[in-house]
Amino acid sequence: MTPLERTTGAGVDIPRKLRRTLALVLAGGRGSRLRDLTDWHAKPAIPFAGKFRIIDFALSNCINSGIRRISVLTQYKAHSLIQHIQRGWGFLRGEFNEFIELLPAQQRTEGENWYRGTADAVFQNLDIVRRHAPDYVLILAGDHVYKMDYGKMLAEHIAKDAAVTVACIEVPLSKASDFGVMSVDDAGNILRFDEKPANPMPVPGRSDVALASMGIYIFNADLLYDLLEKDARLAASQHDFGRDLIPALVGRETVIAHRFQNSCVMDGGAEEAYWRDVGTVDAYWEANIDLCRVTPALNMYDENWPIWTDLRQNPPAKFVFDSDDRRGTAVDSLISGGCVVSGALVRRSLLFSDVRVNSFCVVEDSVLLPGVELGRHSRIRRAIIDSGCSIPTDLVVGEDPVLDAKRFFRTEKGITLVTQRMLDNLWI
């Protein structure tokens, strides 16, 4: 369903309402659980799926939903993120009041603080938000991978005359303590909201799952302004939407839960409403490797809901040599532009742009980020190789867990993360 086909039951013109909506993408977090991958980049700027950045998914959802007024709030080591957005997202037309603008942390308020929480990040830019005069404010995290039609969420927000709508998804109860957890009535009204509770409340009738916030909110703009100004004056507040603003509204305003399955963009063969927080090394590896399956959970070939990004002019991928002792081959893998597989074997792996795999190498179940080069006879298994790494000749990763843990970073699930700094320390 296109934005032009969406209306509420009352016949409200949703495309017009979307044009009166401002999206705020919170993209300032480091993502420390990704370890060395975020030493020099904010989590939303981390490469994903061969040619994209993580933030491309939230931004593409906005464009495909019909929201073309977008502000991206940055803070931690934002240079590569800012550069990516400037290069890849400059196609909107200002004369039509379309934009993607960058709002770096500038210590704009009286206390001259960096962003102290998600709500404070918006508060510190409140004058800019007001200048855009939206009717609704859509608040998004810039570090999740999913495809969602925000227009359907807005339609439900309007139809139910809500003050705030929170997008939610069912998660295993064992993992629910990492999220905001809510309980709702039969009409979808939120009755209780607890941020990262030690003992999360399961969904009624289910003992194994909880209803978790996705960090996606729609606010009526005037209410949001008032809430942020009051919250800024509270010394005890953590100035966070999930910890402070949302729980305080429950029972005072109409706060509803929007089920992700009602707006998730899925093709006919999809088996699940796909949403991933790729915030750990294991989760990042799993989400990328899943794309190498014959039918992955995330469909990147959907022409009706494309993922936009900065399109670099890379040459095609190249596979060379075809003799018995060395043959350039890739099986069940994604190989991006600019890659050269020279007399090597790549199996069940994802190679980002400009990767070179030299002769007699073996790469299995691994993620190689942009600009990696593997020296001859190296073997890489169940690993993530960081951008720009130069792997020495004959290096073996993923076969000796004790040695891997000593030289690199190895997760409990047996995924080895390799960075150039770690490689440099091998010779010290």
Named CATH topology of the largest domain: Spore Coat Polysaccharide Biosynthesis Protein SpsA, Chain A
Largest sheet: 9 strands, mixed
The Rg value, from CA coordinates, equals: 23 Å
Low-pLDDT runs: 1-5
CATH architecture title of the largest domain: Alpha-Beta Complex
How widely separated are the two ends? 59 Å
Pathway: Glycan biosynthesis; glycogen biosynthesis
Domain Nucleotidyl transferase: 23-291
Domain Glucose-1-phosphate adenylyltransferase/Bifunctional protein GlmU-like C-terminal hexapeptide: 315-418
Protein name: Glucose-1-phosphate adenylyltransferase
Description:
It is a single chain. With 428 residues, this protein is α/β, with parallel strands linked by helices. The protein has two domains: 14-291, Spore Coat Polysaccharide Biosynthesis Protein SpsA, Chain A (Alpha-Beta Complex), CATH 3.90.550.10; 318-425, UDP N-Acetylglucosamine Acyltransferase, domain 1. It contains eleven helices and 29 strands. Strands 1, 4, 5, 6, 8, 9, 10, 11 and 12 form a nine-stranded mixed beta sheet that branches. Strand 2 (47-48) and strand 3 (52-53) form a beta hairpin. The radius of gyration is 23 Å and the shape is globular.
